[in-house]
Amino acid sequence: MAKWTPSHEAPEPLEGPVVATITGGTILWFVLFLVQVPFYGWFADRELDWWVWTCLAGAGLGLIGIWYVRRRDAALRRAASGPGTPGAPGGGGGSGGGPAGPGAPAGTAPAAPAGPAAP
């Protein structure tokens, strides 16, 4: 098993403009889809129409990727801002400070308890 043991530490992961990279790839997939649509008949005659749908799937998955990396970047920024920031997980909330909590805007009342539903 010694030959599978790494001889050096793994490098740090590269961080870059992830949102821009995913957005560029999504645009590229969508442009490829648009370029191929006029030739759909040619692709279908040769049983290559899966190329067209692959480009559309790449664009759709790219939209999901943009949503994901934007939320990930926002979560990383919130985590880096520290636990004392209101609205951040583990920060700003707690006991005391009134019925609506210390981080709630003025004039905010707590939600009323749910009662039995009317028939």
UniProtKB/TrEMBL annotation:
Keyword Transmembrane helix carried by entry: yes
Ranges annotated as biased composition (Gly residues): 84-101
Compositional bias (Low complexity): 103-119
Tree of life domain: Bacteria
Keywords, in A-Z order: Membrane, Transmembrane, Transmembrane helix
Protein name listed in UniProt: DUF2530 domain-containing protein
Keyword Transcription among UniProt keywords: no
Pfam entry (one): DUF2530
Region described as Disordered: spans on this chain: 79-119
Transmembrane annotation, as ranges: 21-44, 50-69
